[in-house]
């Protein structure tokens, strides 16, 4: 059995977010969802998308894609709009420092979990 004891808000550092993702698993995040309705696939890198947080998603992973100009790192995110949307319910956002694309690094958090052992009678 586990109990949620609270939460931890991470800094905007991609290194810290990556470490937390590897250590505890999926992370809650907010971002500006204005352009998500038009997303069909690929790595989202929209400079017009600001960091006004309007939508909640889950950061589930990260990766690297070879492009014509070199390697591009990205976050893999799960959206709530079903498998018909985006890349089967997922989408990718360019991994950058600071606020991040569409504010993805602005508010990232994870639960603090206390595990309790169940005593069998």
Strand order of the largest sheet: 1-7-2-4-5-6-3
**Name of the top-level CATH class:** Alpha Beta
Low-confidence stretches: none
Name the shape in a single word.
elongated
CATH superfamily: Cysteine proteinases
Number of helices: 1
Oligomeric assembly: single chain
CATH architecture descriptor? Alpha-Beta Complex
Helix fraction? under 10%
> What do the pLDDT scores average to?
92
Task: Spell out the key features of this protein.
single chain, 121 residues, mainly beta, Cathepsin B, Chain A, seven-stranded mixed β-sheet, 1 helix, 7 strands, 9% helix, elongated
Structure description:
With 121 residues, the protein is mainly beta. The protein is 9% helix and 41% strand. It has one domain: Cathepsin B, Chain A (Alpha-Beta Complex). The chain has one helix at residues 14-24; strands at 2-9, 27-31, 43-44, 55-67, 70-78, 90-94, 108-115. It has a 7-stranded mixed β-sheet with strand order 1-7-2-4-5-6-3, with helices on one face. The longest helix is centred in the N-terminal third of the chain and has 11 residues, at 14-24. The radius of gyration is 16 Å and the shape is elongated. The model has no long low-confidence stretch (mean pLDDT 92).
């Amino acid at each position: 059995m586990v109990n949620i004891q609270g939460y931890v808000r991470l800094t905007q550092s991609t290194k810290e977010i990556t470490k937390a993702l590897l250590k505890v698993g999926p992370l809650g995040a907010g971002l500006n969802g204005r352009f998500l309705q038009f997303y069909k696939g690929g790595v989202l890198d929209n400079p017009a998308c600001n960091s006004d947080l309007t939508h909640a998603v889950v950061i589930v992973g990260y990766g690297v894609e070879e492009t014509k100009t070199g390697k591009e790192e990205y976050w893999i995110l799960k959206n709530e709009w079903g498998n018909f949307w985006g890349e089967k319910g997922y989408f990718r956002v360019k991994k950058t420092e600071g606020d991040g694309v569409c504010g993805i690094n602005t508010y990232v958090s994870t639960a603090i979990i206390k595990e309790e052992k169940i005593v069998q009678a």
